[in-house]
Amino acid sequence: MTTYVIHASCLPWTVRKNPNKMHQVQVKLAERSYPIFIGTRTLDGIATSLGELLIGWSHTVIICDEKVAQTFGKTVKDYLNQTNKRTSMLIVPSGEENKSIANLSQLWSQMLEEKTDRKSVVVAIGGGVVGDLAGFAAASFTRGLRFIQVPTTLLAMVDSSVGGKTGINLPAAKNMIGAFWQPHAVWIDTSTLDSLPDREFRSGLAEVVKYGVILDESFFDHLEEHADAILARKHEHIQHIVRRCCELKAQVVSQDERETTGLRAILNYGHTFGHAIESKTSYGRFLHGEAISIGMTMAGQLAVRLELWQKDCQERQTALLRKFGLPTSFREVPSEQLVVAMQMDKKTEHGRLNLILPTRMGNVRTVSNCEYADILGAIYGNAT
Ligand code: GLY
Description:
- The protein has 15 helices and 13 strands.
- With 384 residues, the protein is an alpha/beta fold.
- It folds into 2 domains: 16-206, Rossmann fold; 208-380, Dehydroquinate synthase-like - alpha domain (Dehydroquinate synthase-like, alpha domain), CATH 1.20.1090.10.
- The strands form 3 sheets. An 8-stranded mixed β-sheet has the order 2-3-4-11-8-7-5-6, sandwiched between helices.
- Strand 12 and strand 13 form a beta hairpin.
- Helix 6 (154-160) packs parallel to helix 10 and helix 7 (198-215) runs parallel beside helix 12.
- The longest helix is centred in the middle third of the chain and has 21 residues, at 235-255.
- It is globular and about 60 Å long.
- The relative contact order is 0.12.
- Mean pLDDT is 90; it is low at 1-20.
- The protein binds glycine.
- Glycine binds next to loops.
């Protein structure tokens, strides 16, 4: 068993305030390093920043869903139109079930029709589905285009827009096809969350809780203490949690970009269970964060069974997830079927599951020798 720990006290705080109150977190990856800009009501700054960041930029392909096209997509397009660059907007359907081969293929054809070339820049505006799909289109079209992530959901801000994971689902396995393709920048305007439907906001909070459990005990304490203010979407609280999650993720990605040492795999805490739940419910029943909330509860339950972590830690995790209105149990699919679906996880080696399990608040480890009976037991007992 290997234990990975990033102590909050050891983290070089990469955030620096710039004059217009935007925070910047750097993802350090040598020549692929890039900034994450975090601010509120800052979409007007995108065009100028892109001009500074992207040498030779001649054409922008905005990719977003229909709803975003009428709101933030339109705003960004209007600002980009003030530059002398050509701008195209391509609409993709929303929903995890649409992160598919068919939609990717359609996107490639549309990019061709829009005369997209190597000086084009893809700007993905929206949640994780759009970011993953647009990111993979950027990674693959003409063997790789520059791209910018503009996440407008909490889940995308704290997780999927950072770190360069792009891809699509196969019917039986989530995110099975894809590429590591780092963005040139991530632009986070937290005011875009003001209009996010409540269920989606809460779904994002599952990934926020995840960071506390896997890496930062004091952040978990903070979430417990300020849960009501966070649910009320108070801007200073939202900025704080988004920034902290981005810092933690940037630290992990900077050390293990391609998930080769095992460090980055800790970000998948709860995901082996969660992805299986999403797959067995055809990606339509739960939002990603909801499935991850159940997955974290199952993983925690397994860790309790294996006497890796204390029952009171498990209870704190469950209580916080429930406080955020997230589901913590799932019994609609027989546990045996769920375990079969879990084998599709990308961390599986020779049919053996590698599970990320908590050991104490702020710390997890990879466990590869779990008994089948214990996994089944954790699934059955996942509500405790
Ligand atoms: N969402 C997990 C990762 O980016 O590695």
